[in-house]
Amino acid sequence: MKHPLEVLINEVGLEKIKEKVQRKLSGFKVACYYGCQVVRPFTDFDDPDYPESIDKLMQAIGAEPVEYSAKTRYCGGALAANLEEVGSKLNYILIKEAVKKGADAIITLCPLCLFNLEIMQSKIAKKFKENVKMPILFFSQLMGLAFGLPKEELGFSRSLIPLKTMWKKLENGGANE
Fold first, then answer.
1. What pTM value is reported for the model?
2. What is the rounded average pLDDT for all residues in the chain?
């Protein structure tokens, strides 16, 4: 069994992916978050300590990955329901790092990470007195956008975080709407 990211990187290839880009995502900065999906318990297609496959994929579609040292930290997905205090702290660290690095969104490949990072933002705002509204997106959503698919067909409407700032940034960066 292979992860879709591995198939895209190793079987489709970044050059073919670059050829499919129809919308420019230039100026859109992303924090690539791997969590524990691809790198644990081990990986044979990426570095388990400092993976770069999503970063390379985002570069191939025109987005700009930021240096994100929290890319493999645990989001607390399995803890968030029972140990909310721990889960909110872990998510706070991930989101705060992305904000500090100037990311416009956090890109992930895990549905639990996406849900956790979105749902915890209101709790983080209350607990840490910081109202951070960081969009959390699947890597495939940004790929679809870059490939010219209509945003209405890519699940962006399901986001719990308002995306108005993101759309404005993409429009100003050259994305065709």
1. 0.91
2. 89
